[in-house]
Amino acid sequence: MKCPFCGGESRVLESRPASDEEAVRRRRECLACGRRFTTMERVEVPPLIVVKKDGRREPFNRDKLLTGVLKACEKRPVPMEVIEKLADDIERDLRSSLDREVPSVVIGERVMEALRQVDGVAYVRFASVYREFKDLNEFREQLEQLLKSR
Asked: What's the mean pLDDT in 128-138?
């Protein structure tokens, strides 16, 4: 690697995992000027693109996913660790697929399935917004399906 000070070649003095364990911190020394500097090495993850219902495309945003789940779980006995794990699992699954573009419908369905396992009320809350229930009959049908599956 080139030295940021003089452009000369450098050598690695020390390598160790960074604090987040997702990068490698390397301490280097320039062979030409002798100055030391630190570099960080991370795996480059290609962006995940969400295809919205209207065809628009936008980068995946974990915070949006987390916000939706948090709203569904509001005032429910669902620990934050469970909510974060749910978001992590969904994001990991999406990124591990070979597709770089994911329809928003797929994300919504995965969230609903995960919430169904975690908390029935949170599931129905999320489903009512996600599926845009028009009346009480649609709401009742979803509740009946939930009760049958338990």
From this structure: 76
